[in-house]
Design the sequence.
């Protein structure tokens, strides 16, 4: 499998200034762990190649050679960003077997073995997973015929180009010999060039239709949504897979002082401290060693590790990066995204 994990994560800035998108935390685990868990369910996938460009070292530090996660991991770092197509070609050097390619920012419960089976049965050059969304403009729109052959691929369609709600889910099975059409060492898009070329040349290019859980975590709203979906069990993942509905998950190594209120569903990680009179509201995530002081209220907010929320502050529906310091009586309103190491003085309103 090749995971495309080299993008700059622009839409998640400032969170991605120090943390590349593939390893932004979902609760307390770097995102790619969830994808690797899924790939491990397919015994035929014997190696995961991470295609990297932006801050590759940080990603390598998390996964090493894969022995801790239980699958062999190899890294291919492009000399310069090659786009999705160029990156796949560059990463697949020396690979002759079919490859499963995943955009490094999608979370899904897809049955990958079934996708591979369809690819084989149809003897396809390429198989792509399609999923329905409400608004295709942020994605690649894909038209098929009744037999599931792909007829048209329109990346980031304009409103007047929307003919279907089915989009490219960013999950493919590809035959490496077809990469010969991708030029070396120039930025090249799989969506804008390789897929249209399969259609033009009349090659077998098939769709696997999927309507289970699927999300691209690449914007602040979606990043927040993933946490809510896991807490609401729309996507099944630890530690919420086993908890009762609306339960709060509090690490045994967190300290909730008496007189503090915790309303689930929420997640409070190890070393976190919630002081007397503070309130943690539903859909909050309190990262490792983050402190919430007296009478402060945190609701619907994701606080990364090592933050402090000062007394009497109110933080609502926001995302706060690592090592942030919010003083007393600070108000952070819905939609705010605060980068690592931000300091907000007392009475600041964001
Ligand atoms: N190695 C490498 N090099 N990876 C890259 C590069 C690059 O130059 N550019 C992007 N990537 C990686 C990103 O890190 C991400 O994991 C993946 O490729 C897709 O890039 P995004 O920037 O997230 O694309 P998108 O979300 O706008 O659109 C893509 O995904 C949609 C599904 O979420 C397209 O594939 C759409 O067609 C698709 O619908
Ligand atoms: Mg994306």
Sequence:
């Amino acid at each position: 499998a090749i995971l495309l994990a080299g993008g700059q994560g622009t839409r998640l800035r400032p969170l991605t200034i120090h943390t590349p998108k593939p390893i932004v935390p979902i609760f307390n685990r770097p995102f790619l762990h969830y994808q690797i868990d899924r790939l491990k369910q397919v015994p035929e996938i014997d190696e995961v190649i991470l295609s990297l460009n932006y801050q590759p070292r940080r990603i390598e530090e998390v996964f090493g050679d894969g022995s801790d996660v239980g699958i062999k991991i190899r890294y291919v770092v492009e000399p310069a960003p090659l786009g999705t197509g160029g990156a796949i070609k560059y990463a697949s050097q020396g690979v002759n077997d079919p490859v499963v390619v995943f955009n490094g920012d999608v979370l899904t419960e897809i049955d990958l073995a079934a996708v591979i089976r369809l690819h084989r049965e149809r003897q396809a050059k390429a198989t792509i997973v399609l999923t329905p969304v409400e608004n295709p403009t942020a994605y690649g729109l894909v038209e098929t015929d009744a037999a599931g052959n792909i007829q048209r691929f329109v990346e980031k369609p304009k409103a007047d180009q929307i003919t279907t709600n089915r989009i490219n889910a960013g999950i493919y099975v590809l035959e490496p010999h077809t990469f010969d059409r991708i030029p070396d060492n120039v930025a090249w898009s799989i969506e804008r060039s390789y897929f249209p070329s399969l259609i033009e040349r009349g090659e077998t290019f098939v769709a696997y239709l999927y309507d289970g859980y699927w999300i691209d975590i690449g914007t602040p709203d979606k990043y927040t949504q993933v946490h809510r979906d896991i807490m609401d069990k729309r996507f099944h993942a630890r530690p919420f897979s086993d908890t009762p509905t609306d339960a709060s998950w509090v690490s045994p190594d967190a300290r909730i002082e008496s007189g503090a209120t915790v309303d689930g569903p929420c997640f409070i990680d190890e070393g976190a401290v919630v002081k007397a009179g503070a309130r943690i509201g539903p859909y909050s995530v309190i990262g490792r060693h983050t402190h919430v002081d007296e009478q402060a209220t945190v609701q619907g907010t994701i606080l990364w590790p090592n933050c402090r929320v000062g007394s009497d502050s109110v933080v609502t529906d926001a995302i706060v990066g690592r090592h942030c310091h919010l003083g007393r009586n600070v108000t952070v309103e819905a939609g705010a995204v605060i980068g690592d190491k931000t300091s907000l003085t007392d009475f600041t309103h964001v």
User: Anything to note?
Assistant: Residues 220-231 form the longest helix (12 residues). The chain has a mean pLDDT of 95. Residues 109 and 138 are 21 Å apart (CA to CA). Residues 4-7, 21, 51-53, 78, 81-84, 87, 103-106, 139-140, 155, 167-168, 170, 191, 216, 218 surround guanosine-5'-diphosphate-alpha-D-mannose (ligand 1) (CB under 6 Å).
